Amino acid sequence: MRWWLALAFHLPALAALVHAGAPPWLKIGLALTVLASLWLEFRNSRGRGAAVSMRLGAKSVALEIDGETMVASPPRVLHGSEWLLVLEFPPESARRRRLLLTLFPDSLGADELRRLRRWLHYESD
């Protein structure tokens, strides 16, 4: 969905450049910038999967991503607050990049979020 939204916003920007009353060098520079932005979004969205479920184990985390279960080592907390929790899972194989998981307060129930925070604080060291 994110790729389609990026495409929906970048294509009109390119069309607007064609009809803009700007010098050709400026049009070309802006068009290259828009195309580079679209290419980066495409590259970033290719390997992105949606995590459906997460189960905490004694020393690992089991994530279900796109129907495939992945067991990861304990994540590193990139950001933790009462409004947002960003976890970084290390890459497990050469074909996977690092996995970032963003959890908002309503992503988990109060008990599950409390259990996750406790697990990250005590068990992941």
Give an account of the 3D structure.
The chain is α+β, with helices and mostly antiparallel strands and 125 residues long. The protein has two domains: 45 residues; 73 residues. Helices cover 44% and strands 25% of the residues. The chain has a three-stranded antiparallel beta sheet, with no helix packed on it. Strands 4-5-6 form a three-stranded antiparallel beta sheet, with no helix packed on it. Strand 1 and strand 2 form a beta hairpin. Helix 1 packs antiparallel against helix 2. The longest helix has 23 residues. It is elongated, with a radius of gyration of 20 Å. It starts with a helix and ends with a helix.
Brief synopsis:
The protein has about 120 residues and is of the alpha+beta class. About 45% of the residues lie in helices and about 25% in strands.
List the helices and strands and how they pair.
Blueprint: H1 2-19, H2 24-46, E1 51-56, E2 61-65, E3 68-72, E4 76-80, E5 85-89, E6 99-103, H3 110-123
Antiparallel strand pairs: 1-2, 2-3, 4-5, 5-6
